[in-house]
Design brief:
CATH architecture: 3-Layer(aba) Sandwich
Bound molecules: S-adenosylmethionine
Largest sheet: 9 strands, mixed
Number of domains: 1
Low-confidence stretches: 1-10, 340-347
Structural class: alpha/beta
Shape: globular
Distance between the termini: 60 Å
Mean pLDDT: 92
Helix content: 25-40%
Length: about 350
């Protein structure tokens, strides 16, 4: 791919710049941890130099983290115990996982899953493999049997955790990761793509969404990404990322909540819902925790906050004939799932 910018022409996507978005996400997470917004015992191990983010960014990252955690917890708590009364085996597949630390945090919180698989570009998984391999506290979380750790290839394969190189633009590499991690197509699976698909060409992100629907029998696919490219804030957002060499290649293809939902329902997912972060923050997140974090820092950027939150959303698609995901997703204030089709009134 040509990574040079031509005069007047839109800048091409640079793989290095896209990978660097991971450093930004990790630094934001650490800033939130340091200020007390979120709890994470491990993220500091993945950041070279800590950066203090503005209250607006901290609050935005908190909302993103709390939403993903809420959905993750719903998935972990859901399900049908198997015949012997043991909890159902479940899998998580994180696409473009970067330096995410959720696996390690879940081990500490005794909420581990059967398989937790992370994929990213080899350049990213190599760095992450090295960081994990040199920290006994992390290696010890990989499980009872000796993990296979190969920093040269950027691969970790252990009983419950795998980190594997993959370029989502090449589905063969995703297939290889699926096989190497020994994912089971029949087990309930949560697929996460947090700020990832938006950096891909629409044809590519659609292939990934379709691949997941075809591969897993029972699954939910959750994305966190931008919306509304056409207003002043959206255009500024596009320009900022384009000038950094990581344009939001997918934003014009799925510019609205409806289009994010349709991407799922058009490509093999049975139901879908998208909600912007402004609505999620006020209607879905725990009001007590929200009250707690709102007292952490002086905050007066309310207008900017509302506009920013209206330009990000979480969308998910669900494929489920078993009922595992029955209570998964956003709910109305009475706790009912809102994406379920309404039952027609009795005539
Ligand atoms: C903004 S970061 C998000 C990281 C992580 N999901 C999080 O939320 O903390 C985007 C990640 O997607 C990865 N990514 C983007 N395009 C990819 C591709 N084609 N194949 C694999 N990973 C990709 C990047 O390398 C980067 O780690």
């Amino acid at each position: 791919m040509d990574e040079r910018s031509l005069m007047g022409a839109p800048r091409a996507s640079s793989t290095v710049a896209v990978q660097a978005t991971n450093d930004d996400a990790t630094a934001s997470k650490l800033s939130c941890v340091t200020k007390g917004y979120i709890h994470d015992d491990f993220v500091h191990m993945f950041v070279r130099r800590s950066i203090k983010r503005a209250p607006l960014i901290n609050r935005g990252y908190y909302a993103r983290w709390a939403t993903m955690r809420m959905l993750l917890k719903q998935f972990l708590d859901s399900g049908i115990p198997n015949g012997s009364g043991l909890p159902q085996k479940k899998q998580i597949l994180s696409l473009g996982a970067g330096f995410d630390t959720t696996f390690f945090q879940l081990v500490v919180e005794e909420q581990s899953v059967h398989k937790f698989v992370e994929v990213d570009f080899a350049e990213v998984t190599k760095k992450k493999t090295m960081l994990i391999a040199t920290k006994e506290v992390l290696v010890s979380k990989l499980g009872p049997t000796k993990p296979e750790i190969d920093p040269g290839k950027g691969e970790i394969v252990s009983e419950h955790y795998s980190l594997l190189p993959c370029d989502l633009r090449d589905l063969k590499t995703l297939d290889d990761a699926f096989t190497k991690a020994q994912l089971d197509a029949k087990l309930p699976t949560l697929i996460l793509a947090e700020c990832v698909l938006i950096y891909l060409e629409p044809t590519v992100s659609r292939q990934v969404v379709k691949w997941c629907a075809e591969k897993f029998e029972t699954a939910a696919f959750v994305t966190y990404e931008q919306i509304h490219p056409d207003d002043a804030f959206g255009q500024q957002m596009l320009r900022n990322l384009e000038s950094r060499g990581c344009p939001l290649l997918g934003l014009h293809d799925t510019p609205t909540l409806e289009s994010k939902e349709r991407r799922f329902t058009d490509l093999g997912w049975q139901r879908a819902l998208a909600m912007d972060m402004d609505a999620i923050y006020h209607q879905q997140l725990d009001p007590i925790d929200r009250g707690r974090i709102e007292r952490l820092e002086i905050f007066d950027e309310f207008e900017e906050w509302n506009i920013m939150q209206a330009h990000y959303c979480v969308a998910y698609g669900v494929k489920d004939d078993t009922g595992v995901f029955e209570n998964f997703g956003f709910s109305d204030r009475k706790g009912a799932n809102i994406e379920k089709p309404a039952i027609p009134p009795m005539m």
